């Protein structure tokens, strides 16, 4: 028996991953770019060679769907694996568009790899984590990360790459928590329905790579205006493809719209703040660290909870 614990941080896509070209391997139809966050993380301990398979979240037996997904992911990593115990905990609410599957599968991949004594490179870990949840492949690095979609059928060239480290740029990401409960439809199902039914999906594909190129340059040059505009465009295009799916997928709540307007108003007053949203109602706002208070107070008029996050570190094997 051997055991390892890993902590991996959540990431928020600034340019979105939405749509797959291979649903088995989670191969994306578009490239994406993300920021890893500091205070939102998952810590996972894997015991390799336990009496029987068991999965616990926060010390309690995990819901069936969750346990099956984690264990079948490890089956894929090592078809001859022994029984395992997986103990996992999040520093933030799951299932609310706060990217828990990203930090979750990154931490599980890293802990399982270390516990099994495998010797994977970070890129190989990213390829493996991607098969658990696409966005997880970006949580193998801190700071800004690009995930190029790749072109190989086996997915070995579809992984994250570090773009700029945690301390590259004094930005903050605020999360206006509109709802922290479980969302009505998960991102995997929503993105597949979008791909299959939205008449705007082809346009989404046609414009996404240019957004990643623009955002990469903007990150390198620390140009918040260019990055923010590309980020909002990517977000609204992604949500437009969801809204035009059949049946339509709409995560927005009234408070989501109120936060969108609050960000527009901040900009009209000269505060550089830009928003993004994932498969959920929460609004995430990127700004200079010096403007955190102004942004926080504008969002607090519409939601009862605003989380302030900074760029975060790479994952680590902690024990
Ligand atoms: C809207 O990575 O959760 O957050 O690969 O099916 O597990 P699966 O999907 P997931 O989707 C994330 C979608 C998004 C955008 C993003 O993170 O890039």
List the helices and strands and how they pair.
Layout: E1 2-15, E2 20-22, E3 27-28, E4 32-48, E5 54-57, E6 60-61, H1 64-77, E7 84-90, H2 100-116, H3 122-132, E8 144-147, E9 160-164, E10 171-176, H4 187-197, H5 201-221, H6 224-243, H7 254-268, E11 273-276, E12 283-288, H8 292-300, E13 306-309, E14 316-317
Parallel strand pairs: 5-7
Antiparallel strand pairs: 1-4, 1-14, 2-3, 4-7, 4-8, 5-6, 8-9, 10-12, 10-13, 11-12
Helix pairs in contact: 2-3, 5-6, 7-8
This protein binds ligand DP6.
Task: Provide structural commentary.
The protein is α+β, with helices and mostly antiparallel strands and 319 residues long. The protein has 2 domains: 2-168, Ribosomal Protein S5, domain 2 (2-Layer Sandwich); 171-309, Alpha-Beta Plaits (2-Layer Sandwich). The protein has helices spanning 64-77, 100-116, 122-132, 187-197, 201-221, 224-243, 254-268, 292-300; strands spanning 2-15, 20-22, 27-28, 32-48, 54-57, 60-61, 84-90, 144-147, 160-164, 171-176, 273-276, 283-288, 306-309, 316-317. Strands 1, 4, 5, 6, 7, 8, 9 and 14 form an 8-stranded mixed sheet that branches. The chain has a 4-stranded antiparallel sheet with strand order 11-12-10-13. A two-stranded antiparallel sheet has the order 2-3. A hairpin with a 4-residue loop joins strand 2 and strand 3 (27-28). Helix 2 (100-116) packs across helix 3 and helix 5 packs antiparallel against helix 6 (224-243). The longest helix is centred in the middle third of the chain and has 21 residues, at 201-221. The radius of gyration is 19 Å and the shape is globular. The model has no long low-confidence stretch (mean pLDDT 96). Ligand DP6 binds at residues 13, 16-18, 26, 32, 101, 133-135, 187-188, 278-279.
